[in-house]
Amino acid sequence: GRTLGPWAEVLEDADVVVNLAGRSVNCRYTAENLRQMLDSRVESTRVVGEAIAAARRPPRVWLQMSTATIYAHRLDAANDEASGVIGGGEPGAPDTWRFSIEVATSWEHALAAAPTPATRKVALRSAMIMSPDRGGIFDTLLTLVRRGLGGAAAGGRQYVSWIHETDFLRALRWIVERPHLDGALNLAAPNPLPNREFMAELRRAAGVRIGLPATRWMLELGALVMRTETELILKSRRVVPRRLLEDGFSFTYREWPAAARELCERRGTKAPGPRAPTLAGPGAHIVALHLHRRPVMKRLRLLALLLLLPAFGGLVLDPDPSLDGLWFKVTVKAKGRAVHSDGTGFQKDSASIPAFVHLVLDESAADGEATTTTYAYEVWTENDPDTWSLVGGADVDVVVTDKDQYILPDVTASLSDGQTVLVVRSTLLIKLKHDKQGSLKSGKLSTLGGETTSGGTTAGFFYGNANFAGKTVDEAELPFTP
Questions:
Q1: Angle at CA of residue 338, ends 335 and 340, nearest 5°
Q2: Pairwise CA distance, residues 186 & 198, whole Å
């Protein structure tokens, strides 16, 4: 909730308050979803703080959920509470990851700002909690493994931080019983490992020998179809629990292989597994508040997509020249919100920007053995009246989904409406029409999904959706000379 109500009375004489509120991050980062992700965390934390402050006999401890995602994407070293790097400024990290950091920091700021001098406050920077329950993250990973899809994701160098459910609950009780522990604590097993090794050990524990890998564009396309974000898979979360270890906490599952075997064993029998330890001791009074909790990756539409993707690529056994040299006159429409730098509130904003998209077949990839067709794309836009410039371009593997229908998985450009520079990332769909002689009659370009961000605005930054829409034009019709 956002306001105080009768529920606040249950905090009287409570020993511990555990607040797990927060909209699931398993979604596309649209402006509305981002607003819900931020508000559900910040507002619930604020109102719990108000309820504790108003209590005549407030609880001794407030355990507030946070996230290990607050740390930077790193491959070189682990993030702990003392030396860890807060994310948001990593070179090369997608702009779409920045908002997750904004959410996490705003979440913890709301906790710190709560006026609760008689209550010890702890921010739980938790990694993925592994349990055998249906619908959870382990259930999803195990299902992929059993379908033969449990290979490395995008090379598999990114680190995976995790914690077994038993250790998560044991750690909560440990924190409650030790008055000197406050502030931010990492809840993660001491030994994170790269995605490639993580999935290999899960396959071994499940008795599955084969795991097909997924390339980055497969993941991007799969995330688009199942309405989620690749950040959940691609960001390197290398987090270690320094404060818990220094305080003497002993993990039951320090290493992933042992944890994976125990979880697989419990999933492999109909008999109930051993009960996890409870947080409450004798006579303890605990209030747990939770809102908008949904199992991570509950829907398995991605599974069906990944099953089809190898066939997707196999449709193109030789480089396809159909798009070579085509120009598209398009309008890029962006709608979203400007997010205040302090994370409190949004302002609606929109932009409509004319542009041209050009595709050229990459002859260096035409070796007759490619499973996709590589094109170089260019995006041109008008900076000033009668002045056009190249604002985006790279090689992209184009996927043929049907005759005269193509997908460009990742097109990026920096576009301006004269006031704000927008960084646009989109997956584009192209449909062509040919006459009976095989000559091109027309072509349409549209967006399967896209986002846009910008930085450096007084409001903080802009985030929203971006949609391309346009048709083919002759090069002679261009208002500029490329």
A1: 165
A2: 20
